[in-house]
Amino acid sequence: MPLRFVSDSLLATANKNPDKTAVVIDGVEYKYHQLETAARKLANVFIENGVERGDRVAIYMDNTWPCVVGIYAVLLAGGVFLVVNQQTKADKLHYILEDSGSKILLTDITQEKQLINGLHDLEVLKGVICSGNAEKVQKLTLANKTVFVKHFEHILETAVEFTSDINKTPSDLAALIYTSGSTGDPKGVMHTHLSMTFALNSLVEYLRLSEDEVMINVLPVAFDYGLYQLLMAVHLGATLVLERSIAYPAVLFKLIDKYKVTSLPGVPTIFSMLLSIHKREALCFPSVTRVTNTAAALPADYINDLQEIFPNALIYKMYGMTECKRVCYLEPELINEKGRSVGKAIPGTEVFVLNDKNEIASPGEIGTLYVRGPHIMAGYWNKPEPTSKMLKSGAWSSDVVLCTQDEFYCDEDGLLYFVGRSDDIIKTRGEKVSPVEVENMLHGIEGIRDAVVIGVDDELLGQSIHAFITINDDSDLNENKIKRLCAQKIENYMVPQKINIVDELPKTDTGKITKKSLSKTQ
Amino acid sequence: MSEEQKIRKYILENFLFTEDENELNNSDSFLENGIIDSTGILEVISFLEESFNIKVDDDDMVPENLDSVDNILAYLKSKQ
């Protein structure tokens, strides 16, 4: 049977290898048959409560068992899932739920504060399914009393499995993956079962993965890099060790040793941490055979140390974007020779660099990178204008080409080199941060008159976030107070590392605030 | 200043951005309460090594030793 839908691989493995461990979470090993059963039960509850083909279901929690079950339950119910970063605060949660028109929210009681403040005035939202302490879930009181609250664990104990087939096709949407944009509002990248299953096959092909992998993931599942670790593991019929963060490095080390982890995906911040620790006490993980990097450039001088820490691993440098999942990768055999390149297009896709005149750039000439292939998004949910900026027509009317908006050049061998972004997006710890979003949030703080946010190069973070603000004369705001207010309103990784309170923001002759002059002062 | 006061002050100032003692309970889990994120723990380790003249082994970088003021105090005691 061909694997047409993202959830098909779960059903196939559960059928072939029901007792194989699918995910290990907090020391508990969940088998494939357990994942299928749980997903079918939750799917049934979704359907009983009105979820129909194409309806969106939001998942707002950390990397947990309910999160994993939720993703497959939505797919089995014929819905579209979106995973909201657990650090998201009430205002943005509200924005995403409203924008997506989510019918149900799957979450955890530890998000209580944001639920109480963020779920008002949502026309489409029918109910919340909440995991965690039963008593606390019982006591949860939402602004809108017509929105039901059910207990996730209770559902798994009592619900009946959904066993029918939903009438859907692979052209249907499978997921919305929200991404920050330079205009400030997050946008839902639409991916169909087609684009996602294609991407999954392409990834496992170039990463040379098999069902024997033991993959580990410490990245948020809300981020497509983290999400695909789960999807790939299930697609392969392999095992995934799912962690919430890399906060305590020794936990990661013990897990790698205990489960003989074979695959470690990271971003430069994670590798920087490993290297810091390696300098104090040598690390070595011989079981790891695949190390991958994306989201930000892996410094070439990390590679030797990484080869010491992971002596048996192929190291993959990659580049991608949520809008097409992944763009390119460097064959690991070339890592020492071509350490600054991000390689070539992933299997089944093509890329090209166009110069100012819209011609194919010659080797060494910098231009904009374009991508073509079945992995490209269907567009941004309900946002035709930004969509038209990214998706251009190709050879015929329905053929699309994705404009990455990033600057690249090729070398004589056709390998790609990232030069820079054409927008202001800051990449910190591998996460995208929109300066406009942070500025808007700062402007909303009482006492702040004006605010400008820039990214500054940082060894550990990649870029750190610096804010320059002017405050009202009678305001008692200081850097700490402002950071505290920021942490209440936006995700922790978006809180500026440095807040400079100045008398005036530098302006050009025409009165516009110049970010370039601010960068120079750092 | 006692060890406890030093640790509390450090966490309050650098991760909670406040001086209000009520904002931090000694038993609060840093991880569960989002007080320290992925890169923060290395900074805490540096602070502990400098302030209390200890060396934190790689194997010690676990929640049991570091994930709350209480845990840190117990860990420091075990290193004496």
Task: Explain the overall architecture.
The complex is a heterodimer of chains A (522) and B (80). Chain A is an alpha/beta fold and 522 residues long. Chain A has three domains: 8-194, Rossmann fold, CATH 3.40.50; 246-421, Rossmann fold (3-Layer(aba) Sandwich); 426-520, 2-Layer Sandwich (GMP Synthetase, Chain A, domain 3), CATH 3.30.300. Chain A is built from 16 helices and 27 strands. A five-stranded parallel beta sheet of chain A has the order 4-3-5-6-7, with helices on both faces. In chain A, strands 12-13-14-15-16 form a five-stranded mixed beta sheet, sandwiched between helices. In chain A, strand 13 (290-293), helix 12 (303-309) and strand 14 form a beta-alpha-beta unit. In chain A, helix 2 (32-48) crosses helix 3 and helix 4 crosses helix 5. Chain A is globular and about 70 Å long. The termini of chain A are far apart. Chain B is mainly α. Chain B has a single domain, classed as ACP-like (Non-ribosomal Peptide Synthetase Peptidyl Carrier Protein, Chain A). Helix content of chain B is 50%, strand content 0%. Chain B has four helices and no strands. In chain B, helix 1 packs antiparallel against helix 2 and helix 1 (3-15) packs across helix 4 (69-78). Chain B is globular and about 30 Å long. The relative contact order of chain B is 0.18. Chains A and B meet through helix 10, helix 11 and helix 15 of A and helix 2 of B.
